Amino acid sequence: CDIRSLGCEEKRELLATIEQAVAFVTTMVFQDGSSQLDSEQVLTSSVKGVVVLVKNQTDHPCPPSYFSTDYTWNAANENDKLIYLKTEGSSLWEQEQQAHKKFAWQVLFQMLHCKVPIICFNAKDFLRTLLQVYGNEISWKQVADSVVLDPRIAAWLINPSDTVPSFECLIQKYFEKPFSMATVNTDTGTLRNASYQNLGVNLEKLYNVMMDLAHDLQVQGLWKLFCTLELPLIKILAVMETHKIRVNKQELKKTSEILGLRLKELEQEAHQVAGERFLLTSSSQLREVLFEKLKLHTLCEKIHRTEVQQLVSTSEVVLNKLQDLHPLPKIILEYRQV
Questions:
Q1: What is the pLDDT of residues 309-323, one digit of tens each?
Q2: Is the CB of residue 314 less than 8 Å from the CB of residue 283?
Q3: In angstroms, rounded to a whole number, what is the distance separating the alpha carbons of residues 333 and 331?
Q4: What predicted TM-score, i.e. pTM, was given to this entire model?
Q5: SS3 of 103, please?
Q6: 8-64+76-178+198-242, which class in CATH?
Q7: Do 249-337 and 8-64+76-178+198-242 have the same topology in CATH?
Q8: 326: buried, middle or exposed (CB in 10 Å: 19+, 13-18, 0-12)?
Q9: What pairing do the DSSP bridges indicate for beta strands 81-86 and 184-185?
Q10: pLDDT tens digits, one per residue of 78-106
Q11: Rg of the chain (C-alpha set)
Q12: Cβ neighbours around 299 below 10 Å, total
């Protein structure tokens, strides 16, 4: 439902439902009709609103805690609600618009306050937008205390050797059937009914993918790292991008010069041991030297390959395997670290 169509009693019921939710799955929609779930979405179009899938309690009333090893959450059920919160202002009917905006803020504030997971693809952009739109009502501390899960970060953590996947890549990996993206009707400012339902389906898929990724993180022993490092960093970056921060320019310049000199030294060392000049930051050139010229992959079993093109990977995992076979992989690892 579009919250602007709700009466007072319905609004109270919605807030009560949010209070009892076990998770929220959300995405921002933009003026150009795209959402955060679109593969090529870049934040050039202004935010029009937020769509939230409210996951309700079923047989398992308690979701896992932030650091719990119990990652099984509720599947889709008929009590889930899909709501649209319009964040964009309008000069028409200003008093009514302010009332709608205030209630949208109440809903979002309660979501942040609930301490249950907010699942969002590109969660940093979502949190930063909340601070920009509702800066007077929502403080950075409330954002910092929220519980966010970003499937994009989870997927990257599981497989750092591949580029960060799009929502479409994630869905195609976990669901065989093709799916259609939803768009916003920018003429009326509301979601078309069919598109609204499509977006709801995609948010449900996003929820299910996050559950699968949580399972994979558990299996690979990465869940604690995900919760204690990656997720807090999302919120820190969102706040930093919204607020001014102070830095010591002279110290940064000094550090930059030291690291710059070390990079040049490592570059020369790499060229010397490789027997030719190449661009250390180029995966294709590095791959050519390591595997076509030095043929290091033939000396090591089970070398990881990239998912899309099935090329021998130049990831940290692979370089660690190769570093005892030749000096170059170790130099590249230090170069990347610097």
A1: 567 788 887 888 888
A2: yes
A3: 5
A4: 0.70
A5: helix
A6: alpha beta
A7: no
A8: middle
A9: unpaired
A10: 678 888 988 876 555 566 677 777 888 88
A11: 24
A12: 13
Token duo for residue 210:
């996050």
Domain range annotation of the chain: 8-64+76-178+198-242, 249-337
Q: Pick left, alpha or beta for residue 264 (phi over 0 → left; psi -120 to 50 → alpha; otherwise beta).
A: alpha
CATH architecture for the domain at 249-337: Up-down Bundle (1.20)
The span from the CA of 311 to the CA of 59, in Å, is 45
Q: What is the pLDDT of residues 22-80, one digit of tens each?
A: 999 999 988 877 888 886 555 556 888 899 999 986 544 343 444 444 444 344 566 78
Task: Give me the residue label for tokens 């919250």.
Answer: 3
How many residues are given for the chain? 338
48: number of Cβ within 10 Å: 22
**Dihedral sign computed on CA atoms, order 8, 142, 154, 122:** positive
